[in-house]
Every structure is written in structure tokens, then in C-alpha cells.
Fold Flagellar biosynthesis protein FlgB.
Amino acid sequence: MLKSLEIFKTASAMARHAAGRQAVVARNLANSDTPGYQAQDVKPFKEIVGSGGPHQMRATRVGHIGHDTNVAASQAFTDTTSQTSPSGNSVSIESEMLKSIEAERQHSRAITIYQTSLSILKTSVGRGR
């Protein structure tokens, strides 16, 4: 039942996106001293949500939606906006820390949406307080 409600699908996708972005940030930080490594990022969640409906996810490749549990990591792209060090590395520790905080906030927001929606659903069927 919960899997058929759009709010739960959206909250779940938002949490997976945040987890995927956190994985990309962690990979960037792990390679911050690797010569020639180019920092990566993922598209913001609002750009991934499609225009087919209010909560429709946009498929970027065949079998993408529903089969890939790590949506954001599969959409990682090279961040060309950052400056490159003399070794060719483009990772900025400060920028990655800010991205990490954004991902944590997005994940917390998704969990709050999920829990609040579940509480409302329980209350509506007379099982919640």
C-alpha cells in the first residue's frame, strides 16, 4: 500500500538521491590528493523530477527507474566549474564539505516527509496518535 502512494515514492527517491550525492562527495574527498582527479557532482533532485506529473521521475536510460537503488551515483558528472590545482586535481575540500551538508539536510528532509506522511496515514485509519 505504501509503495503506491506518490508522497512515499517521492520521499524515497529524495532519500536515495541524497545518499547517492553523499557517496559522490565521499569519493571526491577520498581522491582529493590524487593527481588529475576531476571532482564530480550530481544533478539537483528538482532537475531529476520529470515533467510527466508532479512526482514523476525522469528516466535517463532504459531500466533506470525502479531498478537502480542509487539514482544519484548513476548520474554523476564531472564538475567543470571548479578550479584545477597544479597537479590537475579539481577537488575543493570546502566545497565538498558544503555539498555533504546539503546532502545530509536533503536526506533528513526526505525522512521527515516520510515519517509525517506515515503518521497522517495512521491517524486517518484510526491507528495513530
About this structure: The radius of gyration is 18 Å. Residues 67-73 have pLDDT under 50 and may be disordered.
